[in-house]
Design goal:
This protein is an alpha+beta fold. It is built from three helices and seven strands; from the N terminus they run ααββαβββββ. Helices cover 28% and strands 41% of the residues.
């Protein structure tokens, strides 16, 4: 049996390329609906695939506009809450070539198991703004 950390990282890894390439269908396999994203500005919940796809495309466009060539997300910790729920945290770093696009920032996610696939049900981000593409984090200074 895989550990919570292995499952959590596999979801991060599974969404990386679709985000960079703009492949919504590949990304969608890893996302539960409804899906909530929380930041310091509030929470947005996507109830429909159309809303999720629109939000995804906005984020993909933001990465492209910032010339992001790699989006590195690394599990910090993850734990099983029960058989169908994992909670964890990870760091995020956007790279353009060999340059950081923005300082690394943290996220937390809840993953739900639907009987076949682990999917992201919600995330809490340390970025200040509630919606993509405004993803530059606010410095804690």
């Amino acid at each position: 049996m895989k550990t919570a950390e292995e499952i959590y990282q596999s979801v991060l890894d599974g969404t990386r390329t679709p985000l960079l390439e703009g492949n919504f269908q590949a990304f969608r396999r890893f996302i539960a609906l409804p899906h909530s994203i929380s930041t310091r500005m509030g929470t947005v919940t996507m109830h429909t695939e159309k809303h999720l796809e629109s939000t995804f495309q906005t984020f993909h466009t933001s990465l492209k506009d910032q010339r992001v060539t790699d989006y590195i997300r690394t599990t910090i910790w993850a734990k099983f809450v029960n058989d169908t729920l994992i909670q964890g945290a990870h760091s995020c770093l956007m790279i353009s070539g060999s340059t950081e696009v923005a300082p690394a920032y943290g996220n937390e996610m809840s993953l739900e198991f639907d009987g076949e696939t682990w999917r992201v049900a919600s995330s809490v981000s340390s970025v200040a703004n509630i919606q993509w593409p405004t993803i530059a984090p606010v410095s804690p200074r």
